Amino acid sequence: MTLDEIIKSRRDTRHFTNDVIPDEVVQRALQAGHCAPSVGLTDATRYYLIKSDAIKKAIKELFLDYDHKASNLTDDDFQKVQYKALKLEAIEEAPLGLVICYDRSVLNNFTIGTVGSNEAIKFSAVCAAQNIWLSLTEQGYSMGWVSILNYYQFKQLLGLPENIEPLGYFCVGKPATNYDNQPMLQQLNWKQKAERPFVEEISVSIPISVPESLRGTKESLPDNYTIKESLEKKIDNKTKPLGSLGVLECLAKQIGSVFQTLEPIITKPNIVVFAADHGIGNHGVSAYPQDVTRQMVANFIEGGAAINVFCKQNDIALTIVDSGVNYDFPTNANLVSAKIGKGTQSFLHGPAMSEIELNLCFTKGAAIVNSIFETGCNCIGFGEMGIGNTSTASVLMSILLELPIEDCVGKGTGVVDEKLIQKQNILKKALKNYNGPNDLQSKLAYFGGFEIMQIAGGMLQAKQNNMLILVDGFICTVAFLIAYKMNPSIKENAIFCHSSAEQGHQKILNYLDVQPLLQLDLRLGEGTGCAVAFPIIQSAVCFLNEMASFESAGISKKE
């Protein structure tokens, strides 16, 4: 057959004969895969052969579990019946199983071709899969790609290391049908393939738009003195000595002023945890390896982290956002995918991100908050997770407040003594190396983190939606500081939940002239301070709405 004939006759095969595949056929196909493009010659594609009936049976059970879930996602009963009639795998029937993977540990070292996107190593593995498919077709055999699986369980079942990521399970054998020379789904009228590919020439470049929040400072709206005076009067008339509820009275007045009502109600509170990796984390500035970011996000998803516990305790919704973790989470994972890239670049040697990526961070952060607002939420807390992000936040604080880096750097995940001095020296060197423009946007792009910038964008959107903004610890307060520099009126909506054990945090709080609710020596992040402080915020609302006044209780006031 000619190459064109081989390409046209290649099929995603689900029906196989019982014929045994000669070893030379398999080896020739795998060699074809090995000849596929490999970004930066990383040679990161890995192959695992499955011949065991027991393993095939276990994989089939994984498939059936997700196949049932997929069936429930169909649009109507007729489509559900159609779906169940489809044969979507031949895991136990095919004589050979093949698992094509890529090794993401190659990204621990600089790899040509992955600067724009670490996913290039995955693309290389896909090219290898296509080469194998074409080689098998030319030899009279075929392959079927099974992707309806829980990939996390799939990896566990096969005992694959954490750094090895499968594209799926491939059934290999001699095809029992040619499907009338059509793709199977087309032959069964499930979906029709377009006769010709989509092709369009782009001849004009489109200017990159800058979010309005980055264009300059917005003016604060004038205070509504009437509502504030009415709130003060209502609070002072409660059955208590004047000012005796202390900070709760200030909170009640702030919340009533934000919502412009004497009877505020907090609805559908939500804490959003943004997670991303940082290139600076590769220089030993953290006590933990970068992969802990991915591990902790998995922990959030499984419900095992501190933030899960506290949100459950206080009936707060929890949203997890992948802003830029160096990992491909399954598409069905319970998180919001807002990945800008697989971690920033190291700002020790160059910009952490481009200005286009910075703008995208603000846009995506705003969109996430807006979607939560549209569910009826009027109170949103912000949390973060990212190995290396205290270093990023420290540098941003140093720039924004024009302070020496030594005044901004803390222990982070537990860096002490010589390691703390090393962390300071690395960050000092990074600041010294910067020779870019002096404007805020350029510096945010050069030294920023994907999750920090998405939080800042989200906070600005929360202000626009007139939501209560709950600010967690050091990193989230740095994100707030960025938002504050763009719109000082955001402070009216912000409640600072605690003062963390990071030395820079209290300095920012002093600069903003705000009083945190709690001092518990927290330095965990995740939005835990927001969740722990939330009952206090609710107490302020409850006393304002439900506590009796002197008049209603028939109690005499102090003369």
From TrEMBL:
<keyword id="KW-0169">Cobalamin biosynthesis</keyword>
<dbReference type="InterPro" id="IPR029479">
    <property type="entry name" value="Nitroreductase"/>
</dbReference>
<dbReference type="InterPro" id="IPR017846">
    <property type="entry name" value="Nict_dMeBzImd_PRibTrfase_bact"/>
</dbReference>
<keyword id="KW-0808">Transferase</keyword>
<feature type="active site" description="Proton acceptor">
    <location>
        <position position="526"/>
    </location>
</feature>
<keyword id="KW-0328">Glycosyltransferase</keyword>
<dbReference type="InterPro" id="IPR000415">
    <property type="entry name" value="Nitroreductase-like"/>
</dbReference>
<dbReference type="InterPro" id="IPR003200">
    <property type="entry name" value="Nict_dMeBzImd_PRibTrfase"/>
</dbReference>
<dbReference type="InterPro" id="IPR012825">
    <property type="entry name" value="BluB"/>
</dbReference>
<dbReference type="Pfam" id="PF02277">
    <property type="entry name" value="DBI_PRT"/>
</dbReference>
<protein>
    <recommendedName>
        <fullName>Nicotinate-nucleotide--dimethylbenzimidazole phosphoribosyltransferase</fullName>
        <ecNumber>2.4.2.21</ecNumber>
    </recommendedName>
</protein>
<comment type="similarity">
    <text>Belongs to the CobT family.</text>
</comment>
<feature type="domain" description="Nitroreductase">
    <location>
        <begin position="7"/>
        <end position="174"/>
    </location>
</feature>
<dbReference type="GO" id="GO:0016491">
    <property type="term" value="F:oxidoreductase activity"/>
</dbReference>
<dbReference type="GO" id="GO:0009236">
    <property type="term" value="P:cobalamin biosynthetic process"/>
</dbReference>
<dbReference type="InterPro" id="IPR023195">
    <property type="entry name" value="Nict_dMeBzImd_PRibTrfase_N"/>
</dbReference>
<comment type="function">
    <text>Catalyzes the synthesis of alpha-ribazole-5'-phosphate from nicotinate mononucleotide (NAMN) and 5,6-dimethylbenzimidazole (DMB).</text>
</comment>
<comment type="pathway">
    <text>Nucleoside biosynthesis; alpha-ribazole biosynthesis; alpha-ribazole from 5,6-dimethylbenzimidazole: step 1/2.</text>
</comment>
<dbReference type="GO" id="GO:0008939">
    <property type="term" value="F:nicotinate-nucleotide-dimethylbenzimidazole phosphoribosyltransferase activity"/>
</dbReference>
<dbReference type="InterPro" id="IPR036087">
    <property type="entry name" value="Nict_dMeBzImd_PRibTrfase_sf"/>
</dbReference>
<dbReference type="Pfam" id="PF00881">
    <property type="entry name" value="Nitroreductase"/>
</dbReference>
